[in-house]
Amino acid sequence: MRAAVGSLRAISAPSAPCSPRPWGLRAGAIRKLRTGPALLSVRKFTEKHEWVTTENGVGTVGISNFAQEALGDVVYCSLPEVGTKLNKQEEFGALESVKAASELYSPLSGEVTEINKALAENPGLVNKSC
Is the pTM of this model over 0.70? Predict the structure, then answer.
């Protein structure tokens, strides 16, 4: 993959009234980027505030800090059963709080192999940092 990396720098022209381009990219700002194991475990966020990390072909899904703060104190958590097959962007559960309810959408396709059973007993854990 190629990406433009580098900083924008101001081009000053004190004697000129106004520069038509007040910014520019430094020469050589295009570099090749490589992915590796460290980048594969990074959280990737969806537009609906779910996140996913993958490791050894297994994805772990959660919600963003923004989403849990917007919901407020979570009082109910509905999650799929182990063995459920999910498609990307398909609804798979819901969270209910004192302020609102929100559906959860799968950021990837696959089969549920494990759920956080503690959330069924204590949904407020959604509001705690891991």
Answer: no
